[in-house]
Structure prediction request, 356 residues.
Amino acid sequence: MSAGQEKAQLLNMTLQELGEYMKSAGQPAFRAGQVFAWLHQGTPFEEMSNLPRTLREELAQTCEGNPVRVLQTIRSRIDGTIKLLYRLNDGHVIEGVLMRYKYGNTLCLSTQVGCRMGCAFCASTLDGCARNLTAGEMIGQIVCANGVLAAMEPGQSVGNLVLMGSGEPLDNYDNVVKFLRILRTEGGLCIGMRSVSLSTCGLVENMRRFADEGLPVTLSLSLHAPNDEVRRQLMPVARHYALQDVLDACRYYIEKTGRRVIFEYALVHGVNASPEHADELAGRLRGMQCHVNLIPLNSVPERGLMGVSEREVDAFKRTLERRNISVTRRREMGDDIEGACGQLRRRYMEEGPRKE
Ligand code: SAH
Prediction:
């Protein structure tokens, strides 16, 4: 590749694509596996020690390793959660959250710069969607997070992923599917689909298409309402898809993958959080292989929406339990570091780097 051309994005390639690329560069097939392994470990080209020096130099000049850089990390004093701000090649800034549980590290990934779904309570969508992320930019977030973890504590790495950062994964379908295929490749990050949760606001056609991909991740559905009327108040997407059709697509996903679906339900004071709403919800979910995750709303002052009291959460939860719906209240993490979707990025854009 000659100078002046765009650099080849190696992290955006499947192992097979990388093989073809190396072949076209006149390299033997086995080099692809070596480069793939190094790239996914976050090793710079110069340090890929089992490659000939000339190849390392050539790759450094013509290719890009990781298109994502860590701009800032902020660590919660409460629970060790780490908020990450990343910078992309074109200057866009995205964010992620690294949650440290006893059983391992979970990374919350972004799939788009912003989001165009317009949910009333979500900070990610306030400025719309600037662009989709590539598969390589999703892998790149994990490689960055692994670097941050290893620097803090050798041997630590990301074990679980939730596609719950900025963006609607099923609105960036092809790149997300490619990302998942690269993610599980042996010799790379090798993270299995059982360690991944994908959260969607419910794009029905793509949910059904995704069920047929043979990528059995845990599907989380952002439900947030027991009926169409309430759902439309919070989520513009509900004007396009009836709740009945969304739930049918969930049933299809359960049937195809054998996995239960998780329903996310953010409790918004005065909108969807009454015991009557809980009762209606239980009726709609009856007989489904599912679990409800109650999220006390992270208030977004820009939209004038308020969270609920502990008493309201408990009452809602008890009503579901009485109707035999499996339910938990989501643990709030990183409350002191703007852990909710899009909040930190937004503050960064408005005020610049936050002082520790
Ligand atoms: N677009 C996808 C994934 C990103 S949002 C989706 O809609 O599912 C990840 C989860 O955080 C969703 O369930 C979303 O509804 C929820 N969320 C967004 N803003 C929130 C807030 N202010 N408080 C609580 N949950 C919020």
Summary: The pocket of S-adenosyl-L-homocysteine is lined by residues 117, 119, 121-122, 164, 168, 199-201, 222, 264, 266, 295, 297-298, 300, 340-341 (CB under 6 Å). The mean pLDDT is 92. Residues 111 and 167 are 5 Å apart (CA to CA). The longest strand covers residues 93-101.
